[in-house]
């Protein structure tokens, strides 16, 4: 019985089978090499894309750091500009008041003018968030919000550890203490 190959209708012999297997092996090796090369090319392409994104991200972050440092420096330089521009009208009022001292004949009018300037000055500061810290006499001393400059013997047992006198007012700006009130504490 003779067997024929379906495609080219040649008789199948042991030599043709061996030759066919060799051809398939070479094609398989070629396919494997091609697949490996494609895989390597695909890997290199993905690596290059990832590396490019990484380099761009690093550059973007460096630019961000430089920009924020510059913005912070500008903010520090101009941080007081808002307060200074708000105080300028008060300074102008003081200048006018000093000029009026030369020609003023009534002391009460000068006092009233200075009092108005004083009130305007403190209103500007309070509008900017400045608050006065004036502890009351007899209040319990708290080291977190008061600064004891001295201790004196308390006149009575009830005043021990309490504020006997306020030497200097304290101030806070938007809740942060700028200057602690200086107090005398009973011992």
Notes on the protein architecture:
With 187 residues, the protein is of the alpha+beta class. The protein folds into three domains: 12-79; 80-128; 130-187, Roll (Nucleotide Exchange Factor Grpe, Chain A, domain 2), CATH 2.30.22.10. 58% of the residues lie in helices and 16% in strands.
Short description:
This protein has 3 helices and 6 strands.
Number of helices: 3
Main beta sheet strand tally, sense and closure = 3 strands, antiparallel
Q: Strand order, main sheet: write it out.
A: 1-4-5
- Estimate the global geometry from the Cα principal axes: elongated
Task: Compute the average pLDDT.
Answer: 83
Enumerate the spans where pLDDT stays under 50 for 5 or more consecutive residues.
Answer: 1-6
Taken as a percent bin, the fraction of beta residues is 15-25%
Bin the helical content.
Answer: 55-70%
- Give the N-to-C terminal Cα separation: 127 Å
Instruction: Give the SSE order as H and E letters.
Output: HHHEEEEEE
Structural class: alpha+beta
Number of domains: 3
